[in-house]
Design goal:
The complex is a heterodimer of chains A (765) and B (293). Chain A is α+β, with helices and mostly antiparallel strands and 765 residues long. Chain A is built from 20 helices and 28 strands. Chain A has three domains: 156 residues, Aldehyde Oxidoreductase, domain 4 (2-Layer Sandwich), CATH 3.30.365.10; 191 residues, Aldehyde oxidase/xanthine dehydrogenase, a/b hammerhead (Aldehyde Oxidoreductase, domain 3, Alpha-Beta Complex), CATH 3.90.1170; 324 residues, Aldehyde oxidase/xanthine dehydrogenase, molybdopterin binding domain (Aldehyde Oxidoreductase, domain 4, 2-Layer Sandwich), CATH 3.30.365. Chain B is an alpha+beta fold. The longest helix of chain B is centred in the C-terminal third of the chain and has 23 residues.
Chain lengths: 765, 293
Amino acid sequence: MMQTQYVGSPVKRKEDPRLIKGESTYLDDIKLPGMLYAAFLRSSYPHAKIKRIDVSQALTLEGVVAVYTGKDLKDAVGPLVVESINRGSKVPSHYPLAVDEVKFVGEPVAVVVAEDRYVAKDALERIIVEYEPLPAVVDPEKALEDEAPKVHEDYEDNVCFRWKKAFGDVEQSFSNADEVIEARFRIQRLAPTAMEPRGVVAHYDALNRILTIWSSTQFPHKLRTWVATSLNWPENRIRVITPEVGGGFGSKLNHYPEEVVIPYLAVKLGRPVKWFEERRENLQATTHGRDMIAYVKAAVKRDGKILGLKVRLIADLGAYNYVYTQDNPLVAARMIPGCYKLESIELDVVGVFTNKIATDAYRGAGRPEASYIIERTVDRIARKLGIDPAEIRRRNFIQPSEFPYKTVTKFVYDTGNYEAALNKALELLKYSEVRAEQERLRGEGRYIGVGLSSFVEVCNFSYQSASVRVEPTGKVLVFTSTSPHGQGEETAFAQIVADVFGVDMDSVQVIHGDTLAIPYGWGTAGSWTLTSGGNAILKACKEIREKMLKIAAAKLEARPEDLEMREGRIFVKDAPDKSLSFEEVAGIAYDPESIPEGMEIGLATTSFYVPNLTFPFGAYAAVVEVFPESGEVKLLKLVLVNDVGKVVNPMLVEGQVHGGAAQAIGQAIYEEIAYTEDGVLLTDTLSEYLIPTAVEIPWMITDRTETPAPNPLGTKGVGEMGAIGLAQAIVNAVEDALTPFDVKIEDTPVTPAYLWKLVNAEKKE
Amino acid sequence: MYVRSFQYLAPKTVKEAVTLLNKLGGEAKVIAGGQSLVPLMKLRLATPSYLIDLNRVKGLDYIKDQKNRILIGALTRHAAIENSDLIKEHVPIMAEAASHIADPQVRNLGTIGGSLAHCDPAGDWGAVVIALNGEVKITGPRKDRVMKIDDFFIDTYQPNLKKGEILTEVRIPKPQPNSGGAYLKLERRAGDFATAGVAAQLTLDVDGVCRYAGIGLTALGPTSLRARKAEKTLLGRKVDDNSIEEAAEAAAEESKPTDDPLRGSAEYKRAMARVLTRRALKLALARATGGGA
């Protein structure tokens, strides 16, 4: 029997059969007749002048079609587009292939095009590049020192931008404080490491004069605009297609060198060209995330009330700005107040150039940093004042009656109930029992710790388009400008559409990732797909529904408001024997002979939806055991209570929370992109860059509270929740476990060697 | 990550393999499970012109009971050792160690011979075979050689193999009654290269006095190491908290760790040598006296 209400139920993913059976097409599955393969030669130096490049030996290798250097392409291609530019910031020109100087390990220097990828790779070894090494700087704090090597010779220092702003009366908050608590937190550099690396295929169709670009991207439309700009090519003659995309996590919403070089080569050489990234390239030269250092001063009253904060935030931006590089530190800074009522905050944000690949969005993009900083600070305050960490949060929470709430940094939080989420998490954790157990085990020389994190995040920074068509046979086609790549929105959208029309989910087909078919929009990122894309679809569907009701009303001799759509039919409410099938009404809509007079033929419409910002929130808790003699950490229990507003599909919500949480576990304990002091990347394979595996990820207890957002779907967003809220709960728990050693954790990940050093440094004193 | 092109050779017998290896010398690499070699080739850190694949050589994949010892063919997969009843009965420490190697995919392909001959100090088998006082059989163009495992490790990635020689068998003496062993490894994450590891094997007499002690160290020096002083500390003494602590201290002293920017300083690793030796000996003691899981 057909389900009558899909929204809210854990419908199985429409995407899964084709993925599980390996039937779908990822980028590297694309094979076009006559296709060539490209490989990029990349700098092994963090900073060097390019004295000379000799490609002659590469060109003599059989199967090599062409080799280009930065100098060859400079006039035809680039520079790459940067959209987020803070006032007064320096934005260096960034050419896809380095021209005179390389500024990070992995920066592309030359490209080889060959008949197959193996020849292309072999040819790379035959290119001779003469470098003159220059001093490099990788530590953002060192980069700010006067004598530091300069990343860009033309600038007076390594400061890309500085944003300093006081909100509220900061000095008064600090003079009224009973205590000022100071802390330093470093959030390490992370690699998003999507399971599928990046890749591009380009083909120029001379007949239609269309340049088609397949890219493993999150932002097909934005990419089209960027390529149009950097290639100086009309936007209406570029088609971007995203095939199946194997994860992005923010690393695929950029304008990458390869995404403009490969299309250029396809036009230039008159043959399709493919490039598919290797994992090492991915770790070297696909944008990284986080890499911020915060110095925090908190003005607090003895009762735990937090009055104000002063935060200096140093953000390592890497060598060049990518499209949204400058956004992340500012989002982080402005979200630091979190769930709490503050009188004032002073923010001093410095974006710093270093000889590393740029940082940009990584699942959470600024909000994980914000929440980490405030939640670690709150725990420090609690410890200092001897107040229970749960209680101190309660004393500072914004209250449910205060929404919409304008924060000190001028965000307007839509809805929320932070205490309800925290209480639920504590209940699931069995908080008081865990505390008693902690006490008991300490007597046995075992160190258990409990950590909490109450968090709120901001999403829906984008607008989206939706085109909906009901075809003559009653089948529904939905085109969305969002570009899901694992989240499951084909399912969620189909649920929404099926409910509006009262039809079976299987008669709804969702199309995404083709700029030729779909009106402009932002793609998928920032937890916005369901709310911004879903509301656009809902709007379009309602319009068509209205028209279908009018048609049916004319045929059934009833008023539209007396009709209902369900189970594939349109009924007169009080006379259910009078009805038409959904297919019949669709057929009439396309038949000039039978459509009611005065009505336009067809059932198709396009809507755009500009969302208000939404503020999902939650409360997480972690219980850990720490082994001081070795520094090992074991996760014993994780509780994740989320409030993502209305839920369309609880199973998809669970999946998103689990995935984000796994990445937060990585951030807390395992993952770090590490460079030597000289700028050599130490973690350029997955045997050195440690993503947690099933062994490291414990069972998670998840639950929800539900506070709807003020939009038609009532949804807020879920994609980044786990990644935003969990790392600080774990680190708080580790610090709590080590209370008897009185250690202060400044750094993540909390590796065994790092914790051992902290504990033993304490012992020696 | 694409390997440089190479010629693939698949001999059917040890003799053929040895002949090929002898002829091709340094241009050739022997591949067994490929779990270390293939990644190196993909990173182009290893670029052999010839690959001699042992997987079609008959008679190198076995675990045999031979009187007072167990014979393990070089091509025996880690997973086979992990699941072998013979191993579990006589040298359970080997089953335990096998279960700590990387992940199931690697264990299904990786071989004990390949792992030992790779001579990576972070490899698990070296310490275990040291703790068991094992030997290796080497087959080459001339006479077979048998040597103590200690003599096989010359330096990092440098096995005691002459031109044309292949490690063909591992020989493990069966421990006496009242024996127990344990292999413990500290790794940052499952499947990571070991930060440090310790294999300990004990045999006690009826009074609890130590009659045999074998202690091997993983990732605590240029090769897998034998903690000789730690072994001597225990021999002829009652194994208890005091002697274990002394042995752990000795193992830490004789370890030769180096700084690793990712896994920890030499100081940390030395401290872990102590912690792991202590834990491994306690577990080995419990197992030798009939307890311990």
